[in-house]
Design goal:
Protein name: Dihydrodipicolinate synthase
Strand content: 5-15%
CATH class: Alpha Beta
Family: Belongs to the DapA family.
Organism: Streptomyces toyocaensis
Order of helices and strands: HEHEHEHEHEHEHEHEHHHH
Number of helices: 12
CATH topology: TIM Barrel
Helix content: 40-55%
Keywords: Lyase
Radius of gyration: 18 Å
Number of domains: 1
Largest sheet: 8 strands, parallel
GO molecular function, one term: 4-hydroxy-tetrahydrodipicolinate synthase activity
Number of strands: 8
Length: 302
Amino acid sequence: MTTTFETQRAALADVVAIPVTPFAEDGSVDPETYRALLRRLLDGGVTTLTPNGNTGEFYALTPKERRLVTELTVEEAGDRSVILVGVGHDVPTAVDSARHARDLGAQMVMVHQPVHPYVSQSGWVDYHRAIAEAVPDLGVVPYIRNAQLTGARLAELADTCPNVIGVKYAVPDAAKFAAFARDAGLERFVWVAGLAEPYAPSYFSVGATGFTSGLVNVAPSVSLNMIEALRSGDYPTAMKVWEQIRRFEEMRAANGSANNVTVVKEALASLGLCRREVRPPSRPLPESERAEVAAIAAEWSI
């Protein structure tokens, strides 16, 4: 029987939450706090989780820690969420992580953007094909940040790997996204706005049906309000949410997104939900900016 991936496709057309990875005082991953943060997301109405995403500090975690985060997520979520596990690095490591996710019962993997300094378009296809072919029963979602990649290359990948069912598109250009999606096949894939709430309205207007979110860790209802508005085509309401989150997301995006995770963890720390520490090359938020983040988080929590 051919796998249709209907459940996975539906899960991508939603708020795709990227949980933070909280650290204990000694710097290790804090399992109990992580579980508590997941429960907060699930209780808040989130039904799609991406452990080991960039907001989870994927590249700062050890292989053992990435496995732990995957295991904790699957165990805590149970049947309350579809799990999209972030995988990447070299091909054998990515394949091992994908098979680990599959064996635990996860339904999909998101393949992180290759960080090799020399990425060819045909090599991009080969990299993703090797991972997708290793787990044909899982949905596979490439994370695209490469503005040079063409939609035809994605179509080529999916021709040989039908389990490539969605795309997390994170090039900050709505016109390029519109063209890329149509060149690859607009109806063939589920298109996820990979630059989260700030870009969701513009990307939805040209074909996206889901968006990723780090902000959702802090205020699940805010992210869910936006996607409800976008689904109904109510762009004025969606833009009211956009205005509500604008400053928070500007702080995350400043200086080349240097504080992308930092601002989210600072907001959670201000609410007493986890420690603010992040790992290098990220850094904790300067004291001068903490009060502003706390004020925003407090307003959302009312």
